[in-house]
Amino acid sequence: MSGQRAFRVVEVTESVAGAACGRLFAALGHDVLLCEPPTGTPLRTREFTFAALGADKRSAILRPEQLAADETSPLGTADVLITDFTPAAAAAEGLDFDRLRQHFPHLVTVSLTAFGLTGEYSESTGDSLLAEAYGGLATMIGEPNRRPLSLGGEQSAHAAAFVGLYGAMLALRNRDRTGRGDLVEVALSDVAAYMDWKSDVLHDLGGRVPKRAGSSQGGWRVVRAKDGWVGVIFSAHQWPAVVELFGDPRLSAPGLDDAEQRARRSQEWWAVIAEAAASREAVELYTEAQRLGLPFGHAADAERLMADEQLRTRGFVLPPGSRRRDAPVVGLPWTVPGATSSTVSAPRLGENGGSPATGPRPAAVRTPRASAVGQHKDAAPLDGLVALDFGTITAGAATSRLLADYGATVIKIESQGRPDPFRAWVMPGSAETAAGAQAPASPMFASNNAGKRQLSLDLKTEHGRAIAHRLIRRADVLVENFRVGVTARMGIDYATAHRLNPDLVYLSLSSQGVFGPEALYGSFGSTLDLLSGLAAVTGYPGERPMWSGGDVNYPDQVVSFVGAALVADAVTTGRRGIHLDVSQRETVAWTLADQFGEYVWTGRMPVSDGNRRPGATPHDTYPAREPDSWLAIACTSAGHRRALAEVISALPGHEPDDWWLRHQDTVDAAISEWTARRPRDRAVAQLRRAGVPAAPVNTAADRARDPRYRERRAALSVPEWLKGFPMILHGHTPPDPSPAPALGENAEHLDDDALDELLGGVLRMPSPR
Fold first, then answer.
1. Full-model pTM
2. Does the structural domain 386-424+441-589+741-763 have CATH classification 3.40.50.10540?
């Protein structure tokens, strides 16, 4: 589209988080220059990771001190700098924020580190395992009373990359008003804690410390099929469909149609389901379950995903004829109908570093000087933006909460007959409601809907649709995560909305995208853990796939970052009038792109290997002296291993790296013996003093005691515990959000003036363009 802006981005990173953030900018059409030392970024030693995350970038051999030298460096014309330096490392290279602000006042700097730029861990390096441990997410992944797990791949790194993109676009939008750049501080551990917000709410309500639920027990389970694994996922009212699916008369035994009896007799009927599932093929069982309306999922591995018809139809899995070993084998987790994806390769060292990247790119637009825009200094980044929120539960509602947090006017639209189901979510510890009184909204609803306005509309009526259409004409953004086909029946589908408002940014967050042979299938977050391939690479070695579980629902959490980032990119760059079709399944699968590439080009199948990762050893969680208390260690260099051997005398101090790889079980046993005799926090402190990358595996109770999370506002207490903010914008501090809105009476009876008054003048306000 003509008139769109493209930004110039300089990337100086060594981590997956930094590379993934740069890749996202490049995928959206921005010019990304990767600055590397003469030996190249360390990620080049991980061939398929670099192929996946280096795609569509330029490369220049430039040391950090050359970047900071003067305004003739690439930073002089750059809009964004992506870096993963700790504070001391940044200062040593001349890239600390104070220096950057002095020499490049227009520059937006995105900092992606494991633990942030302040606090006792700020100089510590770390990866997704340490971030998920310190943030508390690892406490929720794995089987009860067994070691906590990091999610497969580098999930916190990729989630933080999406947050970094969102923060950068907010800062660039604010720069248009102020003429000043900003620092966007993203800590992977904060992002991990933010995604585990349900645990905070549960702990705040009743003092219970949520822990791992696993995938081998509970109300939903992963069971073995004839040729793989299937997630048996259903709601209580769907029991008859479960009985029909498995067809075993023992499931129709007297009393099993009662939910309470089923709970008491779970061992009996789960044994029947396991026996029945073992004789069925995984994909066939999944397909038949979906036909019956059951949100089952099969545990897709790399082989199945690369042959999956849904993913091929949508262009996510790229055709074999277009693949290159130095390029991703999968596309992007979003589509814009009418646009086509192309296969792009990662750059050779120093390739095209002195000239703009090839391909059609709009020229970057320079930001106005501060004197021209100073009157808007104090505005929130999204101030003046109007977003209509048709989202429910988490994916859509959490996306629009992120928009509201940074200044957008968000109108949550529900109806009395069909409110957001999260309003009625039953929570242990919730206050009882007096007879005849309206039940208060669930605390789960509050975290995803704070800071919004509410409007009740019955979109089955002509008048309700007319009001919705009037809102669409005045809005900038519409967010929805309905099942495919629902918006058309409501009269708010993209075709209708675009006809009413050609500039509207329309965001669809669906299970598998708005088209394709499985677009109509239903899902929960656990379904998508399985279908995306994440569950197949998460778990204990040789055991069943592991999902993030209903208490986390990782796909729902990460897709909200994607949705908010894509909206912010669209409104900042002028990419108006588009339909952003985001697939939750593809979003999670995209984070495993390097593993798919390795499978395609080498035939090696990615599998779950606990917490072990290529290029790192030891790399796991270990028991501490307190019951069910754990700590994480992630050694990625010979220096880390020597430091570890100085602390734990049972380990050798000078063995080569391949010795540590060959003897991982022996090493882990020696570490476990040492850690199990010591209190968790004391063991972590001793390891860290010696230079060993280590962190406690925190819980929601730890987060509640640690002022860090309130100081950094990853969680809020206003006064109830509430999901906070996933990053720090140093130039803008969002206020605590207003309480989530109550469900109002249907507004069909209101005239235009009354409706305007109810919405605070939004309908009369000129929409920013």
1. 0.95
2. yes
